[in-house]
Amino acid sequence: MRKAAPIYIQKVSVLQFLGLPPFFSRRCNSELPTAVNVTWSSINFKTILQWQPKPSGYFYTVEIHGQTSDTKKKCILTTETECDVTDALRNVKETYTAHILSVQSAGMDNFEEPPFASSEKFTPYNQTILGKPEIQHYTQKDSKLNIVFQDPLTPYMFPNGSFQSIRDIFKHDLEYKLYYWKDQSSGKKDATTKSNTFEISVDNTNNYCFYIEATIPSRRENRTGQESMVFCTSVGRTILDEYGAEVFIIIAVIAIAVITLAIVLSVILCKRKKARAAREKEPLNGI
């Protein structure tokens, strides 16, 4: 019995099926607009790539190129103008470059690399912005001001599922700076620590305001991070200290205005009452 002859199926591209020459794809690719204003935005290693313009009739695909790592593709065939590339930058000390590719629809064959725009180089360890520390607790007792605060967290996780803090990544490179001043005063003092606490000597007759920021002294740029919320102690604090003299002046003016208005209205009502009584006492004409 003769064996059936094998059947070979040749893969045919969309262009070949339509009878279009290969250079058609090249011509279309070369005419696609490329992205502009490509920028990195990174806080606590949460990194977003942004660019312009909004595509019309084409798509974007992001490629992340590391100096030693393999190329990673993100936000494939997107019509957005931003892409979260955090998980592609896990080696935070490596330097990366992003390519924003302008591409046609997934159904079109491409015979050459599509046009793309390149970002500036980005090293997360050196360039991510340090976020706000979270102040957990503070006390002013006698002549000591004690402050406890928490490290900002990153998007990266330990194997147990907990988030790494910036301290877990920067280790001994990380410091914190405290700025403090007497309440209602402009003269600031500062202190530095590598831990998560401050204990400073203060004047026990005054209240103090303060904020904290992270810092990496070894950096050339972005050394100082975002400022925490400002907090003020309230030891022996009076209502005048709390709200300021201006508020009491405003309250006094309003009170005086209300009292003055009440007096004026009372005088007017009294005069009207006397006039009505006088009219009632006059004898009726013609009687």
Query: What is the gyration radius calculated from CA atoms?
Result: 36 Å
Helical run tally: 6
Average pLDDT score: 85
Strand content: 25-35%
Query: pLDDT below 50 for ≥5 consecutive residues: which ranges?
Result: 5-27
Task: Please report the total strand number as a whole number.
Answer: 16
Trace the largest sheet across and list its strands: 4-3-6-7
Q: Strand pairing plus helix content: what structural class?
A: alpha+beta
Helix content: 10-25%
Order of helices and strands: HHEEEEEEEHEEEEHEEEEEHH
Biggest β-sheet: count, sense, barrel? 4 strands, antiparallel
How far do the termini sit from each other? 149 Å
The general outline is flat
**Assembly status:** single chain
Describe the structure.
With 287 residues, the protein is of the alpha+beta class. A hairpin with a 6-residue loop joins strand 12 (175-182) and strand 13 (189-193). It is built from 6 helices and 16 strands. It is 22% helix and 33% strand. A 4-stranded antiparallel β-sheet has the order 4-3-6-7, with no helix packed on it. A 4-stranded antiparallel β-sheet has the order 13-12-15-16, with no helix packed on it. The protein has a 3-stranded antiparallel β-sheet with strand order 1-2-5, with no helix packed on it.
